[in-house]
TrEMBL record:
Organism of this sequence: Microbacterium fluvii
Coiled-coil region(s): none
Family note: Belongs to the acylphosphatase family.
Name of the protein described by the UniProt record: acylphosphatase
Reactions that this protein is recorded to catalyse: an acyl phosphate + H2O = a carboxylate + phosphate + H(+)
Position of the signal peptide: none
Key words, A-Z: Hydrolase
Gene3D superfamilies (UniProt xref): 3.30.70.100
One Pfam match: Acylphosphatase
EC number: 3.6.1.7
Taxonomic lineage: Bacteria, Bacillati, Actinomycetota, Actinomycetes, Micrococcales
InterPro entries per UniProt: Acylphosphatase, Acylphosphatase-like_dom, Acylphosphatase-like_dom_sf
Amino acid sequence: MRRVHVIVRGEVQGVGYRYTLRMVATQEGVAGWVRNLRDGTVEAELEAHDDAVDAVLAWMAQGPPGSRVSGASVSELTPEGTRGFEVRRDG
């Protein structure tokens, strides 16, 4: 099991990034959450088996059509056994 914290930079707000990420994560069986931050980035936490987390991270590096991802920082966290995936209020 793996849990990561991700900050995605670029043109990632106002392009459906969070809601598409929720669909992708759900399809891959990844739990966690995503939200926009005031500085224009997107923040997320993902938790699942390594392969599923890697698949979602690969999608996040590209994003949905209309987005332009310029970079992402990924930090490892301690798994918590989270279930479900939610879009949170902006932070």
